[in-house]
Amino acid sequence: MPFCVIFPAMHLSLFSRYTHSIRIQQFLLLRPEQSMCTWHLETLDAEPVQNVAIPLSYSERDPVPGGCNLEFDLDIDPNIYLEYNFFETTIKFAPANLGYARGTNPLPCDIGTGRDSRWRLLYDVYQYFLPENDLSQEGLLKHLQRMAEVPQVKASAIKVVTLTANDKPSVSFSSLRGQGVIYNVIVRDPLLNTSAAYVPVHTYACHFEAKEGNCSSLGRISTKVFFTLFALLGLFICFFGHRFWKTELFFIGFIFTGFFFYIPVTRLTLLTYDVRLILTAVTGSLGGILLVAAWWRFGILLICMLCVGLELGFLISSVMFFALLGNLKIFQDDGVFWVTFSCIAVIIPVVFMGCLRILSILTCGFVGSYSVVLAFDSYLYTSLSYVTLNVLKRALHKDFHRAFTNVPFQTNDFIILAVWGMLAVSGVTLQMRRERGQPFFPAHPYKLWKRERERRVTNILDPSYHIPPLRERLYCRLTQIKEFFRKEQPAGERTPLLL
User: Fold this and answer.
1) If you compute the radius of gyration of the chain from its CA atoms, what whole number of angstroms results?
2) Do the domain assignments include residue 69?
3) For residue 213, is it left (φ>0), alpha (ψ between -120 and 50) or beta?
4) Are 71 and 170 in a shared domain?
5) Averaged pLDDT, 432-451
6) DSSP bridge partners of 182
7) Which residue in 17, 25, 328, 380 has the most C-beta neighbors within 10 A?
8) Which of 2, 8, 39, 37 is closest to 24 using CA atoms?
9) Would 448 be classed as within a structural domain?
10) Is residue 485 a part of any domain in this protein?
11) If pLDDT is split at 50, 70 and 90, which confidence band does 349 have?
12) Residues 180, 303 share a domain
């Protein structure tokens, strides 16, 4: 037993100081005659400190986590270092070395790359999700114990990827704001069939001390207002969108214009989030109005339905990458990802080109109901929001292609998924039954308006034929307004009679 390893997971008792938790793993080399080791822990903080100490022992056949450290401070550094931002969470660790007997020198790290060197070692990266909405320190410490030893890690966590010694010891994940995640790495020696664990590291991808948008209150006020109004419009579209065709077009134009406006304004400017959200809402509204105006004036149904079909295709493509394709290595290439994503999105309107009314109703049902999911995400955590958020992150962040997009699927997600499915099926079914026997799409509005105007001009029996011109009507209205403000003349004779 050449090493005695003490792993303390210290955590400050104050709820607001989660980000100050300390995780240290210290290797103590045992001499041949030594049978025990002592490790003292001291804190300079006057407040109570909770800690969990887990002693781990390794034999001479077990690999040494962090034994070939060349980047960090410790000579043998088994700690995992974590960095995160809004887009991704990155963990880094030092390479391991082969085990060695007590009283002998460690094997050199960079001499030879054969089977007898540390280059044969493999690194399994594990991810463990904490229960949703669990921000307690007791829960964190309990789950950290499950991620400290090799058997417990394999039984509890999800293996994300296996790295070789030739790979860079760094892995990126999609940041899940407000969701507790624990990461750990198990180094394996495939020749001796032995393994050892690094130090687990955790994050919530948010700040407990932030005044707005902290871990306890994820949604900003502006976000809640925006997505609540968006969800109300989406609910109307879900059940009545095809009947109110112009409202559906406004909804589709709003999404398209807002999405493609938000990407460049975020990447190219330094505007605050609230300003960007307001500009997105204004631009999206203008885009919806323009699409409605284009339909009213030109009445080209295929162009409008192409926009509608692409919206449904975008959602279906996002779901496929969220559930099935997102973590495949081939799609880490941005070119392959965007070409595949676009092809799936374009296939949908092509497939439904012969039944445009069904395409319109399906888009209303599924896209309109998904807006409710986004509204839920403003108030509580749900993994379903990452169906489209992962695509937006990839468009905004150049390095997001390397991130694994695993998400937990817990009680909230099952409930919201059921609500989404119920709304979508109900909306589609209701519109299918209501539109049975009705015209597929409304007539061209401009042609109807023009035909009605010509009828009124030529038909002298139509009362509207005798309506005065607009100029005379405006002058008459102005005269009425002037009369309203004119003083009333007194009644009766005010001059004396001359006899």
Assistant:
1) 33
2) yes
3) left
4) yes
5) 83
6) 128, 202
7) 25
8) 8
9) no
10) no
11) very high
12) no
What sign results for the dihedral spanned by CA atoms 157, 161, 164, 170? negative
Q: Mark whether 410 and 311 lie in a shared domain.
A: yes
CATH number at residue 97: 2.60.40.10
Identify whether residues 304 and 357 lie together within a single domain: yes
Q: What is the pLDDT of residue 108?
A: 83
* Res 75: pLDDT: 80
Q: What is the pTM of this model?
A: 0.83
Contact call for residues 283 and 261 (beta carbons, < 8 A): yes
Classify strands 170-174 and 403-404 as parallel, antiparallel or unpaired: parallel
> Rounded to whole angstroms, how far apart are CA atoms 405 and 270?
27
72-80 average pLDDT score: 82
Q: Domains in the chain: how many in total?
A: 2
Name, in order, each residue with C-beta under 8 angstroms of 104's C-beta and a sequence gap of 6 or more: none
Rounded Cα distance between 133 and 147, Å, is: 20
C-alpha span between 86 and 81 (Å, rounded)? 17
**What's the burial of 456, exposed, middle or buried (CB within 10 Å: 0-12/13-18/19+)?**
middle
Judgement on whether residues 87 and 57 belong to the same structural domain of the protein: yes
Domain that holds residue 125: 3-108+117-203
Task: Check whether 9 has a pLDDT greater than 50.
Answer: no
8 Å CB contact between 53 and 8 = yes
Q: How many angstroms separate the CA atoms of 179 and 173, rounded?
A: 13
Between CA 133 and CA 136 the distance in angstroms is 9
Where is the domain boundary, 434, 458, 486?
Answer: 434
The set of long-range contacts for 39-46, using a CB threshold of 8 Å and a minimum separation of 24, is: 39/4, 39/6, 41/8, 41/10, 43/10, 45/12
Do 124 and 267 fall into the same domain? no
The CB-based long-range contact list for 73-78 (8 Å cut-off, 24+ gap) reads: 76/27, 78/5, 78/25, 78/27, 78/198, 78/199
Q: Tokens representing 281? A: 């809402």
Q: What is the pLDDT of residue 11?
A: 31
Which residue in 414, 391, 398 sits closest to 321, CA to CA?
391
132, 179 contact by CB (below 8 A): yes
